[in-house]
Design a protein that fits this description.
By secondary structure, this protein is of the alpha+beta class. The protein has 16 helices and eleven strands. A six-stranded mixed sheet has the order 1-2-6-3-5-4. Strands 7-11-8-10-9 form a five-stranded mixed sheet, sandwiched between helices. Helix 9 (262-273) packs across helix 12. The radius of gyration is 23 Å and the shape is globular.
């Protein structure tokens, strides 16, 4: 994680401090709310695992809720419940986060509990043996969800030469070979001050937040993470599975997290498949009745991104559905963007951004962008940037990315995939 200068902020209510021998602290002062949302972000995820460690970042996230050196797992759960707020965590491909939302008077205790989990977890071996079974159940839930299972398979195929494509849950084989000592080692290597950002939004004073860490001893291991830029794969992958519906995902190259073209991407995606009036929704669902849900979306990472379309359809209409999606994309690339269409997309995104400004938790999560981005822009800044985007710049972005070949992943019963094998069908 690159350290930034405090001048790299565009909102007077946002403050940043680099703690001495500690992490970055970023806060957003919201004096008219009753709550505070806190997040501890670790700049590590499944992308930073070796093949033998697959799933360890997510496993560690689970285990940090299993007690500290001073509180057992039930005592820790009780302490969180006593606050009456909401606590949770998530592990992504490049990031792990522990977050809590509480009344403003309770934030010191909430932060103390979160910090204790990260700095002095118990990581008991017997607890790990039990929690591993919980993660196996989580894997089963993904396997029973065709959309989620295909999304994992697709990412693994899309970035097949890189750990970025590996599923965050890991595999049963890899988790069975991980013990509590390896969890401690991963914690020591990755949960160090240089990899941590503390984010807070709500009725919380920045100086008070920083002072609360005066006696905190942070790990200084600071092992340099090396991330190699993956290659975006292309082609067609057919995945047979007995099921009632067929699922498909197509991905083109996208933008990385620091790109200055994000406003163009947001608007283009909104018009392609981000709303009920988008081209894909109108063509695939409204005009042809081929799917209940069809959408486009984008994923941005520190050094690469992807732009995707996902759809579920009746297996008997799979071929037709894919033809309509492909034709819609080709039409979208060729046709001019109408002024009224662009105006509507801008309005939709500006409303979304401005509404997010009222969310305490949303503002806290927004602060985490500072891990990747050299300047922490406010949501109001992005709303203004969206308003200044031209149709020409959007059209240029569309051509730049959609002229390249995508990767298609199709999940359906084998008999319905036969039409796409060999030279029978070309996407």
């Amino acid at each position: 994680m690159t350290k930034r200068h405090p001048a790299s902020i565009t909102d007077a209510d946002i403050h940043i401090t680099q703690l001495s021998d500690g992490p970055l602290c970023v806060s957003h002062w919201m004096p008219n709310v009753q709550t505070v949302s806190l997040g501890i972000f670790i700049d590590t995820g499944s992308r930073d695992e070796t093949e033998q460690e697959a799933g360890i970042a997510h496993a560690l996230e689970h285990m940090l809720f299993k007690g500290t050196q001073h509180l057992s797992a039930p005592q820790l759960n009780q302490a969180f419940d006593n606050l009456g707020g909401q606590v949770n965590a998530f592990t992504g491909r490049e990031r792990t986060c522990y977050h809590i939302h509480v009344l403003h008077e309770d934030w010191p205790e909430a932060l103390r509990l979160l910090t204790s989990m990260i700095i002095e977890p118990e990581l008991d071996e017997q607890e790990w043996q039990r929690e591993r079974q919980v993660i196996f159940s989580e894997m089963g839930m993904v396997e029973d969800s065709p959309e989620e299972w295909l999304a994992d398979q697709h990412m693994e195929l899309l970035f097949s030469n890189n750990p970025l494509g590996k599923p965050t849950l890991g595999t049963k084989k890899s988790l069975l070979n991980i013990d509590s000592q390896q969890l401690r080692q991963y914690l020591s290597q990755h949960y160090c001050a240089a990899n941590i950002l503390i984010a807070a939004a709500g009725r919380i004073q920045h100086d008070t937040l920083c002072e609360s860490f005066d006696s905190t001893q942070w790990s200084q291991d600071n092992q340099q993470q090396v991330r190699h830029i993956p290659t975006h794969q292309q082609g067609l992958h057919l995945l047979p599975k007995d099921m009632e519906q067929a699922q498909c995902i197509a991905s083109w190259t996208g933008l990385n997290a620091t790109s200055t073209q994000k406003p163009q991407l947001w608007l283009a995606n909104q018009m392609l498949g981000g709303s009920m009036s988008s081209m894909l929704f109108q063509e695939v669902r409204e005009k042809h009745g081929l799917a209940y849900q069809v959408a486009s979306y984008y994923s941005t990472y520190s050094d690469i991104g992807c732009w995707s379309i996902a759809c579920g359809t009746d297996k008997d209409r799979l071929s037709m559905c894919l033809d309509v999606i492909k034709q819609s994309v080709q039409t979208w690339m060729k046709q001019d963007i109408q002024a009224e269409q662009l105006k509507q997309a801008k309005r939709q995104l500006q409303v979304q951004l401005r509404m997010s400004m009222d969310s305490v938790e949303g503002n806290m999560l927004h602060l985490a962008h500072y891990i990747d981005e050299p300047i922490l822009y406010s949501n109001q800044y992005w709303a203004d940037q969206i308003n200044n985007v031209s149709s020409e710049s959007i059209h240029q972005l569309i051509h730049e990315h959609f002229q390249r070949e995508p990767l298609w992943s199709i999940l359906a019963p084998q008999s319905y995939l036969d039409a796409f094998s060999g030279n029978n069908h070309k996407l």
